[in-house]
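Components:
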Amino acid sequence: MSHSILVVADHDNTQLNSATLSTLQAAAQIKALTGSPISLLIAGFNCSAVSEAGSKISEVDHIIYADNSVLNHHLAENIAALVLDLVPDKANAEQTFSHILAPATTTGKNILPRVAALLDCSQISEIIAVQSQDIFVRPIYAGNALAKVQSNDKVKVMSVRASAFEAVNITGGCATINTLQTVTDTAQVRFISEDNKVSDRIELSSASAIISGGRGMQNSENFAMLERVADKIGAAVGASRAAVDAGFVCNDMQVGQTGKIVAPDLYIAVGISGAIQHLAGMKDSKVIVAINKDEEAPIFGVADYGLVADLFEAVPQLEQQL
Amino acid sequence: MKVLVPVKRVIDANVKARVKADNSDVELNNVKMALNPFCEIAVEEAIRLKEQGIVEEIIVVSVGEQSCQEQLRTALALGADRAIHVQAAATTEPLAIAKILNILMTKEDCKLAILGKQSIDADNNQTGQMLAALANMPQATFASKITFNESATQVNVTREIDGGLQTIAMDLPCVITADLRLNEPRFASLPNIMKAKRKPLEKLTSEELGVDVTPRTTLLSVTPPAQREPGIIVNSVDELVSKLKFEAGVL
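Structure:
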């Protein structure tokens, strides 16, 4: 078998997330350069729907499907072991995979360096552009600089920043599905619980509009104001680190260098001063609006439209006018 | 038990990185350097575990140039017991660092390593996971809460994940990487800063440890990101909504 480009999918056992679809776009760009086929690894538990969806993506050539309870919750130890099992000759792993990609979600970030280390390869984190089959661009210093790096490794292992690549469509494909029967349980780690905020709100990473609140929101109840605006324009609700640290909202809403990196068509920052770490997570948004009563706030430096106003007056007005 | 806490010297978090005029890298000359904030959180957690009687000795280690001894002294002033400086290029890649740390974990018989989840310069977010893989240990990345059982043979870690929080249990030895909300690091007191100068700091080299640190990637260029067009200040919500509708076309 000739070598292929492996994409490790991130999913919830029901559907592929948008970050995986963006990662497939990056993989497709590499495929256009090298002609290598794309293999999509779907590892999980009771996730046949994900495998079927994956096979319908025209960019995907093969699905590698592993469905087992030990692969539930995407524990890095077991998924990394599974990827390694796909490589018959570890010393010549490039004969199996030329590139291994995963979305830079918390799941991908958890698994991929483990895979890279076990293959004795370095990892290139959060690529935002593919320049050739071994040259990639990635942000460093919270996006204050862009590094162009060339990989000299036999297998190019990289995580992909989803906001930099357009998601592929789940259409037009008929990939073959190869079901793996044996999986490894490293038994090193046990899942205890997951506190997923089940919310009917739009997910941050795939939203076309986002309204985020910062320390200026003062408390968690006031985030309801942002939710009402969000409901009117079909936006997701985000937050700055300051708002999460203050306990106004949960960590899954954090936008920034170490939270979620987003690039929606419209980003409305409310009561957010604009620390470098927050800007790193949203400054590639198409249109940025800042509402803050401090006209000196650094957020105005990146905003297309700034409104110097008390958010407690401006946000209800905004809601009325939408 | 002994805990290994690797730390990194980085540009101070409050300083904005600037790209060199020749686009070769980010300017590091005459820039304030500091302990990477996530590493500081890892050191703090180790100190708290020592205060709880779970950890007996905290060994901090930094892989880099001579100058990273400053950050090791900072960690010693915060409460680490001793330090190891492994001489290597400041740009040593996470894989090579993980190999060095793996050897040190065995050499020092550490049952636990706590690292920051990423450094704020390269933003790689790799070293802890790579160390765990090479050492064949379980890992808990992005930790916001760490709870040991009574005999300190097992640890429950709550992780900050995209969807919320996940809690996993690991047997020791294991690797944990610290997220922002794990704790709030203390400040070093002046007497402790003075005392830290007398704490042991061992010097090793990557050659002595037998680790090949040859880079696997070549940095071709570093450029500033595209600047946004300057925006405008609107005077009212009316004007804002009108601009968003008719000028930007996003409503």
